């Protein structure tokens, strides 16, 4: 979806249409969760401190996020997907992989299917979507971002090599900002330059990710679209209207976060053995502290006990006074992934 959260807000409130909108944060504090394309023209991006967003775009309009509303619209979009295929792997509320090789409509062209899905989404929700079409998940993901907003990009088998070789390294899905800068320092600015490196050399510089980079730049990605992908963690966090200074205030602020996490764990019927505490300070520095236990954390009391313990272990003298965000995540569920399609004969579909 294109600028999903912001687009939903603009659709629901006509007064926001055509104006720079940031979901989340305020002029004084907070973080931008999503920005409309009108705001992006000024350099406003998601995860940007809202004070910086306001500096870049003084006319920006901040709106509070409505995640229940976004989930409702996301469900409508998935209803469209399900009219075409059951092989849907959600990445987030606004993004998913679809395997349409054997589709419910009996359509013989992947491009025509993508166009039909985008048209159905527009008709049902009034929102625009961009699609990437290719031979595997990695290339399709890159292609989906290539012609935004309201675009469609096809990278067929015969175009894969040239497409990846010409691609700027920061456009590779899985190559973050820090890694991109490290690669550029090594003289790797494009896919072609990445391709010149051996798997051993990339592994020496980037660890296990080196093997991944070696394969993807050659267009190799055998991961199936997995409709039963298992969540590996559940959590919640909160950015506060004012900085928390005292430990007692932080503990009070952690309690509703912990209750939210426990409710989500119970709803998902998953209880992890690892708890991670996230702390972001007023200067945006961030730390995490984790603890693993032998028995699943399946009660609020146990959850808050471990969270408080991790909070108390922090050497506060090493960090600036003032906490702006706290978060709790539970992981290590111990589930085995199910429903993965086994390797076998590769079916074909015209692009």
From TrEMBL:
Gene3D superfamilies: 3.30.70.270, 3.40.1170.60, 5' to 3' exonuclease, C-terminal subdomain (1.10.150.20), DNA polymerase, Y-family, little finger domain (3.30.1490.100). The record marks 5 as: Substrate discrimination. Its cofactor is Mg(2+). It comes from the Bacteria. It is an enzyme of class 2 (transferase). Keywords: Cytoplasm, DNA damage, DNA repair, DNA replication, DNA-binding, DNA-directed DNA polymerase, Magnesium, Metal-binding, Mutator protein, Nucleotidyltransferase, Transferase. Residues 1-176 form the UmuC domain. Its main location: cytoplasm. Binds 2 magnesium ions per subunit. PROSITE patterns: UMUC. Belongs to the DNA polymerase type-Y family. Monomer. This is DNA polymerase IV. It comes from Roseivirga misakiensis. The lineage of its organism: Bacteria, Pseudomonadati, Bacteroidota, Cytophagia, Cytophagales.
């Amino acid at each position: 979806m294109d600028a999903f959260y912001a687009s939903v807000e603009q659709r629901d409130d006509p007064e926001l249409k055509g104006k720079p909108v940031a979901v989340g944060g305020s002029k004084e504090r907070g973080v931008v969760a999503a920005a409309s394309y009108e705001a992006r023209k000024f350099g406003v991006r998601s995860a940007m401190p809202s004070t910086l967003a306001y500096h870049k775009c003084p006319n920006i309009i901040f709106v509070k996020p409505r995640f229940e509303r976004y989930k409702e619209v996301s469900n409508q979009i998935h209803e469209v997907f399900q009219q075409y295929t059951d092989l849907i792997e959600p990445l987030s509320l606004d993004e998913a992989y679809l395997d349409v090789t054997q589709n419910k409509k009996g359509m013989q062209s992947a491009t025509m299917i993508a166009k039909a899905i985008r048209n159905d989404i527009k008709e049902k929700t009034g929102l625009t979507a961009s699609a990437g079409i290719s031979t595997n998940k990695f290339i399709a993901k890159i292609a989906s971002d290539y012609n935004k907003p309201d675009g469609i990009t096809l990278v067929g088998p015969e175009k894969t090599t040239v497409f990846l070789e010409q691609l700027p390294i920061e456009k590779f899905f899985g190559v973050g900002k820090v890694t991109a800068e490290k690669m550029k320092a090594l003289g790797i600015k494009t896919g072609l330059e990445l391709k010149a490196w051996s798997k051993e050399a990339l592994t020496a510089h980037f660890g296990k990710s080196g093997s991944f980079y070696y394969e993807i730049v050659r267009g190799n990605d055998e991961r199936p679209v997995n409709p039963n992908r298992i969540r590996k963690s559940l959590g919640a966090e909160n950015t506060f209207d004012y900085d928390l200074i005292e430990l007692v205030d932080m503990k009070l602020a952690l309690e509703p976060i912990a209750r939210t996490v426990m409710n989500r764990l119970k709803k998902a019927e998953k209880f992890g053995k690892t708890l991670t505490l996230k702390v972001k300070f007023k200067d945006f520095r961030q730390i995490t502290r984790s603890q693993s236990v032998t028995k699943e954390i399946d009660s609020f009391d146990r959850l808050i006990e471990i969270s408080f313990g991790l909070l108390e272990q922090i050497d506060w003298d090493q960090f600036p006074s003032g906490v702006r965000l706290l978060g709790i995540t539970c992981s290590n569920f111990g589930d085995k992934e199910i429903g993965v399609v086994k390797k076998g004969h590769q079916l074909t579909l015209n692009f």
